[in-house]
Amino acid sequence: MEARKGYGDSIPSNELLPKERIMKYYILINQKYGIDTEDGLRTYIHDMLDKAS
């Protein structure tokens, strides 16, 4: 969302996110889902696919 800010849905974005921002995101996701386990990763993927539908 941060890299897409200001872009329309059909306009590609080449914005780069700092590594620290990406790392912070996955730390928070791991705290919520436990993506360092197979079950946690499966739940995370399921939730992301549901949001995309």
Report the average pLDDT across residues.
Answer: 91
Estimate the strand proportion: under 5%
How many strand elements?
0
What form results from the Cα inertia axes? flat
Q: Roughly how many Å apart are the termini?
A: 17 Å
Q: Report low-confidence residues grouped into runs of 5 or more.
A: none
Q: Biggest β-sheet, characterized?
A: none
Number of helices: 2
Rg: 13 Å
Global structural class = mainly alpha
Helix/strand layout:
Blueprint: H1 19-33, H2 38-52
Could you give a short description of this structure?
Helices cover 57% and strands 0% of the residues. With 53 residues, it is mainly α. The longest helix is centred in the middle third of the chain and has 15 residues.
Would you mind describing this structure in some detail?
There is one protein chain. The chain is an all-alpha fold and 53 residues long. Helices cover 57% and strands 0% of the residues. It contains two helices and no strands. The chain has helices at 19-33, 38-52. It is flat.
Features:
single chain; 53 residues; mainly alpha; 2 helices; 0% strand
